[in-house]
Each structure stands twice: as structure tokens, then as C-alpha cells.
Write a structure and sequence with these properties.
Blueprint: E1 6-12, H1 19-27, E2 34-41, H2 47-57, E3 61-66, H3 71-81, E4 86-89, E5 95-96, H4 100-110, E6 114-124, E7 130-133, H5 140-148, E8 160-162, H6 163-168, H7 180-189, E9 193-205, H8 211-214, H9 216-236, H10 241-247, H11 251-257, H12 261-276, H13 279-291, H14 297-307
Parallel strand pairs: 1-2, 1-4, 2-3, 6-9
Antiparallel strand pairs: 4-8, 5-9, 6-7, 6-8
Helix pairs in contact: 7-9, 9-12, 10-11, 12-13, 12-14, 13-14
Length: 330
Amino acid sequence: MNHPQVSVVMAARNAEDTLKESLASVLGQTFANFEFIIIDDGSSDRTGDILQQAAAQDSRVKVFTQEQRGLTNSLNRAISVAQGWYLARQDSDDLSMPERLERQVRKLDADEGLAAVGTATVIIDKQGKPMGRFPTAHGAAAVRDGLHAFRTTPVHGSMMLRKKHLTAVGGYREAFLASQDFDLWLRLTEQFTIDNLTQPLYQWRITPNSVTANRRSLQLQYGGIAIAFAHERRRCGADSYSLLERCAGDLEHFAAQYRFRGRVYGSWGDSLFRALNDPRTARLYLGQAIRCGYLHPWTVGLFVWSVLGLRWPGRKPLPNAPAGTDQSTE
């Protein structure tokens, strides 16, 4: 095979129920000049057998096995051996439409300043039934503004990135045990542009057992840290990522030590209240933000609202499911 233009990277763990269909959706692309790098991240089911069978049948598939180390570590390992100058993400329970890679390559080839491009996305259930469209922003300015306002984000699995731009901003950061993609998009948009195709070329499977459903609170907390880091970089030129590394997942300890702790507490209270309808926990974090001297009118207003014990009637931050499918509380 010629030098691949694209490296598709996937991390798989105990994905036997959906893996074959997901692999087929990538291997059946109209664009063929790619390698498919898959990290088996400590699976204990038939995932490894399915991957080895796929590698035996298609030389583009390259499988690496490791003890469980998590998504970010797996992606960084895949990227370290990737030969393509474009990197395409794919999750092991999701599906790509046949023209996805072709259209994304065409978009990146046409715009050297574009660091990454995702696609419009349809959310599907366990059986693959469409549940609705994910609210994806289109246009580089709209994507950037949605990210920095903690309002919308590209769908991670749908993205194709220019490898040199990913390297330029430091890649995925492993201390982000969730929302590692959100942190990456924020850092990319500080130097480059990212966008989404308007065509729905990716299907994102969300079920009651999915990572998105079960780790929503953690995703929002790490997302709040990513937003605070973006503010810190604008104000100070660098962020406190080394502190997050030292805290090794203890977010309460991190927040207590962080110099912009009030902003983090305010973001946590905001997102837990508006996204998860949890006024009790939100009130604790919003109160901490105020005690730290973070007196942003929005934070103070949400604190008052949470004291009243009322549900939030407005728009949610970083929605993870279409209207009428409240996956966030499962």
C-alpha cells in the first residue's frame, strides 16, 4: 500500500456487540488510502478476536494490545505510530457513512489553515435507530464561539485532524480523564480554525450504558477546567496543567489549589445545574465560587435560582443528546 494519506485511530474496550459494524463502516469508505490503527485497551470479551480477524482480512488494519490505560492514552499511542498526515477518529460503537473520509479529506486539502473538520451527526440508540441530530455548529467562527461559551462542541468521533497542527498544540492531554477532546478543541482554536461539514456523515451511538451517559457529570467538570484553562492562557500565557497532572484525578483537590478556583467552582455549579438539573450540588459549588470572590452576575443569579430549588428552564451547556432524549441523568 502507498503511504497512507489518512490514519484512522480507534480505542476499543469490550466492544464486541458493536465493533464489527463499526469496523465495516470504516473499511467500506469510498476513500481508500488510509491505515486503520486500533488499540485494544485491555478488553476481556471477544474484542481482541474480532480485531485480529479484521487485521487478517484487510492489511490496512493494524492492531495493538495493551493493559487498560484509558481513552486518552490509547489515542496518543495510536497517533505515535500513525503515518498519515491526517488523523481521523472513530469510536468502536459508532458508524461512519461511506463518503465521510472522502469529504473530509477534500475539505482539508482545500483549506491549509483548517486544523480539523468534523461532520454533522445523527444520534442512534443501541439498535441503531436514529434518535435525532446532535446540535453541531457550522462555520469556523460559530464553532469557536460555541466552544468558548461552553455551549456546543464538535463530535469527537467524527473529527479528522491535521497531524502537524495537533502536534503543534501538544496533542491530547492525559490528565483530562474526560473531555480530553473539548480541551483539545479549545487549544486548537486559539491558533487555528476548526469546522464541521453540514452533511450528517457520522452516527453516534448513545445508550444507558455508554460512557457519555454514565460519566456526564465528570465530563462537565473536566470541561469546566478546560474552559478555566483557556481563560488562564489568555490572561497569563500558560495554564496550570501540571497541577491537574499532580492531582491525578482528585478534582476537589485540584480546585482547592487552583489560582482561578472561583471560576472553576462557578463553571461546575453552572453546568451541573443547567445540564443535570441538580440544584443541590450546584448550590454548593456556586456558593464556593462566591466565597472565593467570583461574583460574576451569572454565577450569583444561578446561585439564587438554585436556592429556590427550581429546575433550569433554558438552554443546556454542551448538550449530549437531541431534544426529548434526556441521556444526561442515566
